[in-house]
Amino acid sequence: MRDRAKGLPSQAVLEGIQAVFADAPLALLVLDCERRVVLANAAAAALAGRSDPAEMVGLAPGEALGCVNRLDDPRGCGWGELCQSCPLGSGVRDTLATQAGRAGVEGWLPVAGTPGRGRCVRISTAHVVVCGRQLVMAFLEDVTERRRAEDALRASEEKYRHLVEDISDVIFATDAGGILTYISPAARRVMGYAPEELTGKHFSAVVYPEDLAGVERRFREVLQERLGPYEFRYRNGSGEIRWARTLSTPVRENGASVGLRGVFSDITEARRLQEQLVAAQKMEALGQLAGGLAHDMNNILQAMASVVMLVKSDGSLTPTLRARCEELSDQIRRGAALTRQLLLFSRQDTARLEAVDVNQMINGVLNMLRRLVRENVELRVVPADGEAVVRADRGQLEQVLINLVVNAADAMPEGGVVELRTGAGEGKVWLAVRDGGCGIPPEIRRRIFEPFFTTKEAGRGTGIGLAVVHGIVTGLGGSVEVSSDVGVGSTFTVILPRDRERPRTPSGELPSVEGLEELAGRGEHILLVEDEEGIRTALAEVLTGLGYRVTEAGSAGEAAVLDDAAQPDVLLTDLVLPDASGVDLAVNLVERWPRLAVIMMSGYTADQAVRLGAAAGMVRFLQKPFEIHRLAQEIRAALDERAEK
Question: Residue 72 belongs to what domain range?
Fold first, then answer.
């Protein structure tokens, strides 16, 4: 028995305590007032990696557990604080009385004999009075596996928390009534709302009112497990109306749906791109249709123009009939202008770039412009001083002017002045068309260059005029500026790069057959290949009247069997033939007759090589319908080039 004078319990008491706690599953240490182990049970020895609990008696608790630097230091895992805070009272002598100390602390301890990080031990203390002596009982609970499970769970939660917070879409949850119970931080970036602004509110707070009925119906469907994505409009934090897609699943408890959770994605940009793609596909289809219609119409107009050429060439024509023919020619030109707009819109027009003086171009079409507008509309021209030369296709530039003037006149139903003003300077040439009409509101001004957009009533506008203007001008490296005040008028200003080349002198009034002596033929042989009989017959008569010998063919096959002895000087062929293309025919015939001059003609051309060649001046091309002077000029130019070879 140990000496009581030193404040130690009797051996009998210790043996009694040890008998009680020896087989307890919880590790137990009994410390004296000097915080030395006076008793340890088997569980404590096992925790310390010892085989005999007696080995721990007399040691400090940290030393007993093999982690002296941790448990014996009050700044360590809290052992010292636990012991010091354990209340000391008189208790009842010779009995066992306890008073609770601190609830306990936990810490990872490098327990002797345990590899790696050690064991996580929860330490709880209590003060006891045994035989008038004060002792501290320490209960050591091995919570290693629990802590490891908690750490793993915490790491998993942290991982998925970051996943939810960093994902580009918004994660949300609602109760069965549609109240938002959770919304991820991405709402701030995607929707423009802080999560706390939406949590606790009904989802209808952000849904666009016109789409709310559909969203509510979809909400009920998801609760009934009718799953799938749903798209609707919503209003973001800035008040902007945008598009969203949600994909949700129901949350079930005890077999009943108690809400739903899902993903909210902003698809505004995706929908915008999709709409642009659909519009582009629609425009491509319309362009193909427009090109086909223009081709057929141009063939009809060419047949009419050829007949008018023949009638006008009759020397016995009375002045009245000649005036009627001129009027019919004007109408054919108007029809040709409309079909050319279709070709320009469908990008199937063939451009021939040359130096064009804008002032001369305006003067050349001024009479036609006056016939296109109403009598109560005055055209006033204010030309630039000197030349205002650009590099462009003259016909396309005329089309720009015609469209702008007609639009300006339509903006003044009560009449007024349309002013055409030109200018040049700083490497630019500009053409401004100003009206005093109703003006263009800002919301409409943003859409005026959209194809098929028009504010005119049915039958008064196609909606492609300004789209054609914009396409031609931007294709020439220029721009179109619009200024307008509602109730005051509008000004459209076309700005193009200036060209330093001298323009050719315009031909002025179109001459009749009798006025083409300098361009007339001298008996040269022309092979005319055209599948439209009416056009072929009329053109053959016109060419004969111009002084050429003509051989007609209705197909490439007919032209190919022409005898070598009848070698032509010029091949005048339609680009689209029933059995081959005009390009293929020309290639084959030039191989037979290397000095053969070639002129292509068509109501439109889908052949990229022909378009590029014509634009560069490498291929002679006649756009149907064409006037007699244009035909005579091309043939004479082709023959002159042949002679130079």
Answer: 4-148
Is residue 455 situated within a structural domain?
yes
Residue 411's CATH number: 3.30.565.10
Do 212 and 185 belong to one domain?
Answer: yes
Q: What is the pLDDT of residues 568-607, one digit of tens each?
A: 999 999 888 888 888 888 888 988 998 899 998 877 655 4
- Residue 29 to residues 71, 135, 474, 542, 615, Cα–Cα distance (Å): 13, 10, 92, 126, 103
In a domain? residue 316: no
Examine residue 162 and state whether it is found in any structural domain, yes or no.
Answer: no
CB atoms within 10 A of CB 198: 20
My answer on whether 520 and 638 are in the same domain is: yes
Q: Cβ of 115: how many Cβ atoms within 10 Å?
A: 6
The two tokens of residue 336 are 């040709």
Could you give the 3-state DSSP secondary structure of residue 374?
A: coil
Same domain for 433 and 527, yes or no, is no
The Cα–Cα gap between 307 and 627 comes to 11
Peptide bond into 625 cis (omega under 30): yes
Do 560 and 491 belong to one domain?
Answer: no
Question: Does the residue 154 lie in any domain?
Answer: no
Secondary structure, 3-state, 9-35: CCHHHHHHHHHHHCCCCCEEEEECCCC
Asked whether residue 418 falls in the same domain as residue 489, the answer is yes
Q: Quote the Cα angle for 234-235-236, to 5°.
A: 115
Residue 216: count other Cβ atoms within 10 Å of its Cβ: 15
What are the phi and psi torsion angles at 171 (to 5°)? -95, 135
d(CA 273, CA 590): 48
For 32-46, 233-247, 512-526, which range has the lowest pLDDT when averaged over its residues?
512-526
Residue-level length of the chain: 645
The answer on 71 and 13 residing in a single domain is yes
Query: Which residues have CB under 8 Å from 267's CB, separation 6+?
Result: 231, 243, 244, 245
If you average pLDDT over residues 240-255, what whole number do you get?
Answer: 91
Packing angle of the helix pair 394-410, 358-372 (nearest 10 deg): 40
Written as one letter, the residue type at 605 is T
Last residue of a domain, one of 243, 266, 289: 266
Burial 18-48 (b: 16+ CB within 10 A, else e): beebeeeeebbbbbbeebbbbbbbbbbbebb
Condensed to tens digits (0 to 9), the pLDDT of residues 505-558 reads: 544 444 444 556 677 788 899 999 998 888 888 888 888 888 899 999 999 999
Q: Looking at 89, 117, 148, which one is the last position of a domain? A: 148
The domain total for the chain is 4
Residue in 325, 343, 333 with CA at minimum distance from that of residue 371:
333
Q: Tell whether 371 and 414 lie within a shared domain.
A: yes
The whole-angstrom separation of Cα 163 and Cα 259 is 22
